[in-house]
Amino acid sequence: MWQKLSLRGRINLLLALGLTLGLAINIARLVVEAGPRVRAEDQSVIRLAREFVETIVPGLNEAADPEARLNQIVHDLSKLRHVSITRQGDATVAEHSGDSGDERSPPAWFIALVHPETTTVSVPITIHGKPQSLLITSHPNDEMAEIWDGIVTQLAVSSALAIALFLVTIVVVGRALAPLQALSQTMASIEAGHYGSRVEPGGTPELAAICAKLNHLAGALGEAVEDKRRLAERTVSLQDMERKEIARELHDEFGPYLFTLRAHAGALMRLSEDGRTPTADALCKHGTAIMEQINALQQFNRRILEKLRPVGLAELGLREALGVLLRLWRESRPDVTIDANIASAPDETGEVTDLTVYRIIQEALTNAFRHADATAVSVTVEQAAGMNGSRGCALVRVSDNGRGLAPDHKLGFGLTGMRERILALGGTLNVVSGNGGVTVEAVVPHGSHH
Q1: What tens digit of pLDDT does each residue of 369-423 get?
Q2: Which residues contact 172 (CB under 8 A, 6 or more apart)?
Q3: Would the pTM of this model clear 0.70, i.e. be above it?
Q4: Which in 29, 38, 168, 382 has the greatest CB count within 10 A?
Q5: Boundary-marking domain end, from 173, 190, 216
C-alpha cells in the first residue's frame, strides 16, 4: 500500500500519524500523572480532616450532651466535598454528594486506573472515658472529574489544533508539490513529440531547478530532432545528387565509348561483307581503336565503382586503398602533382573510420581537380592517440594550390554530407580557403567495425 501512495499522500499520512502519536503521548502523560495527583489529594484531605477532628474532640467532654454534639459535628462534616466522617459502627452512612453519578463523573475505566480503592482512616476518640472511633473516608470523585474534564478539554483543543495544522500543511504541501503535476504533463507531452512544451518553474527551489532543466532538455531534444530531420533531408538530397551525377557520367562518358565501339564493330562487319580479304592494316586500325575504348571503359568503370564502394578497402586496408585511389587520379590527371603522406592505421581503426577518411580524401580530390584548377595537391593522413584514455583519431588534411573559394561560396553536398557524417562520429571537419588554395582538415575518431 505504501508503494502505491503518491508523494503527497505519503507526506500527509506521515504528518497525520505524527500528530496522532503526539496527541496520544500527551493524553497518556496526563492519565499517568492523574494517579499521583489523586493520591496526593487524598492524603492532604485526610490529614486536614484528622487534624480538625483532633482539634474539636477535646471540647466534646465539656458539652452538655457530648453524644448529641458529636452527632451534629459528624452530620456537618458529612457535607464536605472531598471527605466524609462517620462514627464507627453506625448502620447508616451519610451519602456523599460526590458519590452519586452525574454527567461530570469520569468513566469507570478511568476511575479504576487512577483510584481503584477507597482510602479510610480511623481516628480514636474518648468521651467521658468511653473509647470510640471516627472513620475518615476520602472521596476524590470531584478531583478525578476535574482531571478528566482537563483531559477531555485538552484532547478537544489539541485535536482541533492538530486538524487545523494538518489542513494547513496539506494546503502548503499541495502548493509546494503542484509543479509535479505540471512536470508529469509536460513530460508526457514531450514523450508524444511536442518538444515545444514547457513547464512554468515554481514550487520549492529544487522543483524550480528541475523544471528549468526539463525545459532545457526539451529544447535540446527539439533541436536534436530538427537536426535529425534536416540531416535526413540532406541525405535524401545527397543520394539524389549522387544518382544524378552517376547518370550524367554514364550518359556523357559511357555513351560515347559505346558509340565508338559500335562504329568500329560496324566497320569490321562491312569489311567482312565486301567479299574481299581485309588488309592487316585495316584490321589493326579498328582493333587498336576498340582496345583503346575498352581500356577507357575499364578506367571509367573503376572510377564509378570507387565512388560507389572503394575496391579493396576491407581486404587491403586504408593505406593500400588510398594508394589505388591516388594512382587512378595520377593516371587520369598526369598534369597535376600529387604528394601523399599516409601513416599506417592501427589495427582497430574501424571500418566506419576507414571509409570516412577515404570518402573525405576522395571528395576533396574531386573538388580540387574539377573546380580549383590546381597544379599540386598534398594529401596527409596521421594517426593520433586520444586524450585522457579516449579513442584515437585520424587526422586528415588535403591541400591544393588552386584559386580557392569565393567569399560567399557554400559547401557542396559532398563536403556537407561528410561534415555531418563526421559530426555524427564525434569528429570535426573544417574547410579553409585563401589565396594559396583550399585546405580540408578533418579529425575522425576511431570507431567500431560494422
Answers
A1: 877 778 899 999 998 876 555 568 889 999 988 877 766 666 666 677 777 778 8
A2: none
A3: no
A4: 38
A5: 173
